[in-house]
Amino acid sequence: MSNPIADPTDPGQGAADHTPTAGGTPTDEAAYSPDALADLEREVTTERAGETDPYDAVVLVSFGGPEAPEEVMPFLRRVTRGRGIPDERLAEVAEHYHAFGGKSPINDQNRALLAALGEEFARRGITTPLLWGNRNSEPFLTDVLRGAAEEGMTRVLAVTTSAYSSYSSCRQYREDIAESIGELAEEGSPVRVDKIRQYWNHPGFSSTNARLVTEAARQLRDSSGILPHLVFVTHSIPDAMDDTSGPGDGDGNVYSAQHQALTQAITTEARATLGEELVGELTYCSRSGPPSQPWLEPDVNDRLRELAAEGVTHVVLAPIGFVSDHMEVVFDLDTEAQETAAEVGIQVLRVPTVGIDPQFVSGVVDLVVERAAQERGESPEQPAWPVGQPWPSVCAPGCCPNLRTAKPAACGAD
Description:
Shape: globular
Radius of gyration: 24 Å
Structural class: alpha/beta
Number of strands: 8
Oligomer: single chain
CATH architecture of the domain at 203-350: 3-Layer(aba) Sandwich
Mean pLDDT: 90
Helix content: 40-55%
Order of helices and strands: HHEHHHEHEHEHEHHEHEHHEH
Distance between the termini: 40 Å
Low-confidence stretches: 1-30
């Protein structure tokens, strides 16, 4: 395709013929007239707009959260439905939300991400509508998909706000998508939903985290004169869930392996960039469930206490397991972990989540374009960093199973 802003003197971009016409006017004046440029711009815009075909819309699918004190308990009951957790225990968790006025920050962050994605769509000339639906709070995914179907948008691509592979971080999203599809089918409003791949090792996510961690390590080193210890953090899950994460015919433990791989890659990258022998390790937060049930460890607070005993005084805390600063970050890290660090005499600098970082936003749009190309039968480039292959867009049979109750799951081969 011609480039409307190409340099006509650059042979690599197609030099114009400067041979005068009979009237003495160079032929490139006509070729680059305002009307010709407008035609070329329309051609480019049409091509870019088609980058998301065959999808009618893209929907951001997130966990959701309460936006007022009276919404906290209903939200927690929806999150834990079917698990038999008494209200007394939920009331304890509710205090985390009430400490912040009964409002989770996640919905405002999703609004900001949706706006940033819209700006990147517009910059690229992509006109596909962007929607937003939550699993556990308004706007509920089923309602959003219903409204889309009523407007003729029946092929939808989902972008989930979870980067890694496990039941909680992938298959449960797929189950909720399947539930919405089933409910709408019963209403006579069939929709089809695909999703982008889990993106823990897409450079838009992984390289953005590497840059943010490196910048934080540099800042803390330069301000204190002391080389910090890198402590990476993600959401803990039950050992059994990690053991079964990944394809049904795989070895399991994919969730923890993905985090370990990214922890090691970012630490190596930061060492090379700063020329320092940095040490990095993975920890976990937000454990729940009965004490008798083993969850992934070490807990970030326990590890901070151990590091203090080992003589560590400065820590960079990197929440690589999270896309934005939702409750697990602002409470578990910015409140509890900071209090622990203060108690044991460690200075902590918490790294920002990728949030609406332009590099991450651009990467998400790249993933949308990649998935659409696959659905058109093309073989797009699939960048991956660090090691390994990109996670498939269609999950393998038995991937990250539900260990409590077997449920249908969309966007997979089973």
